[in-house]
Structure formats: C-alpha cells, structure tokens
C-alpha cells in the first residue's frame, strides 16, 4: 500500500484563516477565528487525504539563514496582529490533541522543513501533498509531490502539479525559483529586478531558461531599457534566486517514522473543542463510551424509592434533578435523586411529582438542600407545581466562582476537579447525538444516585475554598440570591404579541420584494440575489465593479467585500440592506415565532449565569440580548414584546457608560473622574484631550474616533483591532492609543500596575472579588503572555460592571417586595433592566429604580441611569 505524507505550512494556513474569517471570540474572550479556520482545514485534510504520515511545520522565529544573505529579507512585513499571535499556542495544542506531529527549526523556515521532508519521502516512494498559501512551495512540485495552494479564504485550493505549472506558466517547477529571482516577491521583501513583473519574467525564462543563462546572455535580450535593468541588477537577481530557493537539506532531527499517523482520540479533541467553544464541531465527534459503567466504577448502594416517607430526609440533603435537554423549559425530568447521611436514593419522576410528602419537603424553607444548578432545579419543579425552597448551596455556581475558566462543567467534572471523586460522564451513560437514550431504571438510579452523593460531598470543601479565597460573600450575597431572581424571570417569561410579529414578518416580506425590484432595476435584469455566483456575474462582469476576492466557484460577494464596494455603486448598498432584512426575517421573526410557548404566548429565555469569565450574564433560546437595533426594522421587532397584563407598561432602565465609569474609578484617573462628575460627554472630553482642541472644535469624526478608543480600551483593543474598527492604518491607530494614554495617565498607570499585580497573584479581581485566573501571564510564550496581559486589563472593568448590575437586580427585587409592588423584573440586557408594571406604579418606579441602580455600589464617580417606558419594549427606549 502506497504511503501518503501530508505536509502543512502552519504559519501560512493560520494567517489565511485569520484574515479570511471575521474576528471571533469565545465565551472566555479568546479570539478563535484562525484556530477555527485552521481546524476546518485540518479535519477536511484528514477526511479527504487519509494520510499515513502528517506533519505541520512552523517558522521558528523572525531570523533565518537567509538574513545573512540579505538583511532586509521579509523586512516589509507588518507586525503580526496580537489577535492572531494569541491563537498560535492554541493551534499547537489543537495539533497535539489530534496526535499530529509539529516541528520548527531554529534559523530555518517552515518551507525548508517541508522541502527537506518531501525530498526524503519521494526517495522512499511516498505520495506527498503539501498544503500552504505560499506559492514559493510550488517549486517542490514533482510527479510524486502535489502542492496545494489556498487562494482566497482557506477552502479554495489550487493544486500545482508539474503539468499544471507547465500549463499555467509554461515553465517547470524548478524554474519557479528563477521566476522569483527575476520578479521578486513583495510579501517576503525579495527584490528581484526592479521593473520586471511576472509577464516579463516568464518571457525571459521561456527564452533563456534560468537566471544564470540570462545573465550570461544579456546581449540577446530585446529592448534597451530591459537590458539596462538586468545589467544594473545582476547581483539582485542572483541574491533573489538564492532567497527564493527552499533548502532540501535542512538539519532536521525528525524522521518520517516519527510522523506516522494513527488517527486521534475523540475525547482528547473534545476537550479542546469544549475549551474553545467549538460546539458545532463537538457535535460531530462520536464520544459514546461503549464500556459498561459497572465495569469501570465500584458499585454504590442506591435505593430505588417507589413510595416516599418523611424519615427518608435528613437535616441537610443533596437534591439532584436530571433533565437531558439543554433547554429545561421544555425538557422532561428524567429522574430525581437525594443523598444524605442516611444513604443515596433514586426517585422516579412520577413518584416524586405525585408525592405530597416530597412536595411538602421541597417547599419547606427550613429543610436544607444542596443542589447542582439551583435555577434549573427551581424552574423544573415549578413547571410541575412545586415551589422549591430551602436551597443553601449550589455546587454549579460555587465551581464557577472558584474558577470561571471551567464554566459549564457537569457534576462529574466538578467532583473530579474539586475532590478527586470519579463518576461516569453523561455521554458514557446516555451516549451522544442520535445514540442518546435513557438506560434502564437500575442503571439510571445508580448514576443519578452517584451524582447526588457527589453533590453532598462537595458542599463542605467548596465552602472552605470560597472562604479561603474571600469569595464566600460573593457566592452567598450576590450569585445565590441572583439564581432565584433569574429563575423567577425565566419562569415568568416575556409576552409576545404574536399577530404583531406575524404582521412584521409580512411587512419585511413586502420590503424584501421592494428591495428586490429596486436591485433588478439597477442591474437591468432579474437574477437570484441569494446566489453568490449570479450576483458575482452582475456586479463584476456586467457592472464592472473591481474584483476584491475570488473563490473556487467565482467571485466573492461576502459582507466584507460588499462593504468595501458600497461607495462604488448604489446596487451594493441595496444588496447589503436586502441581506440585513432577510436575516431579520429568518432569524428574528421566524426564529422567535418558533420558540413562543403556545399556551402562555410568552418566550422563556434561559439566562446563563455561569458561562462568561467576566461574570456577565448571557441569554439563549431565544437570545434576547442580541435583537439587532442598528436598523430601524430591527428595533421595531421590540414592538412585539408587550406586558402580560392589561393596563400595564414596559419600563426600561439602563446604566450610562458603566464600564467607562468603572475604569475611571479603578484607574483613579483625574481627567475621567472630573468628566463624569461634571456630567460631560465623555467621548467629547476624550477627543478634546487626544486632539488637543477646544470643545467647540471637536468634529463628529473626532468624537467617533474617541468613542472607539474609549470602548476599545475597556475591551483591551490593539492597534490592529482599532484600525479595523475605524478604517485607518495600524500605525495611525497605534499613535491614537499612545496619545490617549498620554492624555489619561491614570489609565496608563492602571494598565501597568494590574499586569504586575496579576503576575504576582496569578489572577485579577473585580470590585466584588470575582477572580479570573491568568496562568499565561508569566508565560515565556509572547503570544500567550500578551493575551493574558490584555485580559488582566479589561476583566476587572467588565467584571465589575457585571457585578454592579447583578447587585442592582437583587436590590430592585428586595425593594419591589418592600414597597409591596406588582412590578416584575423581566429581562437583563447587558447594562439594562426591563420591567413590566401597572400604569399606576410607573411614578414610583421613576423614583426607586434610579435610586437602587445608582447606589448598587459606591464609586468615585456617580453611576447614572436613564429610563423610559411605554406600551411595548420598543416604546421604552
């Protein structure tokens, strides 16, 4: 059987992926677009090529042996964006999880490693595939080696065989080196002969064959000017050819035997997919553990209870409710288990729900319960008519506070990390995807009994850990009370005017038709606007717009391409609008209609309390924090959200620039503090300081740039990130950030101090002592360290803002009870709280909501709250 070797140019593919995909973040704040694109390419290669041997080669550093020949080699390259640099360690970790060899060699490039190994493999009869975005590697093409070059993006590949190179250029693979020698390569700063482009270089090679033969026969070159150019730049041509030549004798200490590939362990790949938040890729892995549970774990005693007696309960009990579906608002309870000093008990769902003894115990606030995910347990039982009370500890929330990087862990993972207690994973018991099924009662009972037992054992050590970290107050006074408030909000839901939503859908359908007709008139013909191929022909062939990107199937008509062409022709703006309206229709109108409860006519979103590393809440099924408001049509979707009672109104209150106010407080910056105390427009103030102008001289563009850097500082923006946001060069963006830090020395000092503090402690904290651990802050790896430093700067700001609004929710809940009001808290959307209230309570809310929100936490600057109200959520903005 023929052996197949795949060699991947790691740096090149990572760069391609980074610039091909929009900047993506996972819930831990890590940029993942390059990792995701790289993973997609890698899995596709493994699936299609089925290599017997594989290696990913990386550049070892900035300096190589080529710099001895030409110091300016690669000198024109821009510094790698930190958003990309921070992803390389994860790409290496990803390769390790796949069991794929990776290699780099000091003083050499990835190309040289690939060149050396491909030659060795050819000699041993391998079939070789090289994957890169760098055409230099096409010189390695041979009857046994195919060089696959990514064109635009990462999936559009052109295969370079000797025949393809001959057909395309009329030369051999070896002459690619001569081609580079003559025309140079701006990306690598290889000079070539100035003024000689690809067309002229090919013409010369067709005539002379090599650089050396050309230089020996300059007299035969036609054209006086060209002859002079070649004569004057002989040395440059020779040096350029040397620089472009991939060495095939690099002193590598890795052999073909070392890179043999035997596949990967899905569980190892799953671990990094989970860490990175690649849920769609995770779904594709088959993680079913076929080994029986009782073969791997000691059997424990679990009593299956078919009739509940009062003497089954102790003073303190662990209670576990199992729901397999992620959305517990719709999922059914699979079973209930209890663990206490008397033993472990499994209660079938029907037995628990129909038992008056269980209901009485569950609703008794003096009977202490330790649970996993209090919010989920409260909602699940409330749907069955049981009002769960007496929860004193939640291991899910405690685990999140102790280490937010392990957010979303199940009971098994928490027990393993906290007390070294092993129990089977959900996937081992139920399977995954289509194979998922509930086992028989004995197996299920033992599994859920194990979970309850683990929860019971976790309370004491986790309490001690929280106290040791000075985080017990955060747990007890903030996160635990918040769980019950969120449970009430989720169960209550938000009323949706279904007919209104359907009417909006009809209006958007009509708007789409109008835009369609307008686009057809601008194009001069009808075509399928949703077909990239047909749209490409209209834009780039018929209308002659400049081609910015190409794909395997034709022209790229992606959003980033169209946005750059918006000024070129009216049709582009109309197509972008058409797409936005189409997304509103499919995602938000049709999407919302699917999740409305048919009985209550409400949507019951789930608030993720233990997900983000900053402490912020997020929302799913549906995501009510993400309804688009930039387009008026998007904002109008909020008209469908209405009070659930007649004569009631929606009341919305939001913090004004809370994160910048937190920054002013934490950084103790006099300029920022004074601006907020004086109630100045902070973006105008920033523009005045950065541009050194008076208030009346601040232009709209200056304020826009100041706003971008203000919020950018909060989120740890880099020169690259700011340049993308403002459409300016990285150099300009870098200077802007520099001027900002000079204008606000307190912020500059804070950034320096917080990094040093994080290096000493290994973590940063919010104002309420929420921690975020940063083990990479002292890493020798520059990229990992840089990401950790930016995280150290922005986490205390974002996390403190999250803590403040959580405290405000608790304060408001208590105040509503104290004032004996009917008003209900419905939603939290970032820095905003949404209530529904009887019209007669609005005047009271206008007083107490700002009072409670503005005094949630005392800062050196005033917190400011704006509010509005009306018959719909739209009117309350």
Shape field: globular
Helix content, binned percent: 40-55%
CATH top-level class of the domain at 287-476: Alpha Beta
DSSP strand content: 5-15%
Q: In which order are the strands of the major sheet placed?
A: 3-2-1-4-5-6
Describe the structure.
The structure is a single chain. By secondary structure, the protein is an alpha/beta fold. It is 49% helix and 13% strand. A hairpin with a 6-residue loop joins strand 5 and strand 6 (157-160). The radius of gyration is 32 Å and the shape is globular. It is built from 37 helices and 25 strands. Among the domains are: 4-170 and 247-259, Rossmann fold; 287-476, 2-Layer Sandwich (Nucleotidyltransferase, domain 5), CATH 3.30.420; 495-603 and 612-642, Taq DNA Polymerase, Chain T, domain 4 (Up-down Bundle). Helix 24 (498-523) runs antiparallel to helix 27. The longest helix is centred in the last third of the chain and has 37 residues, at 782-818.
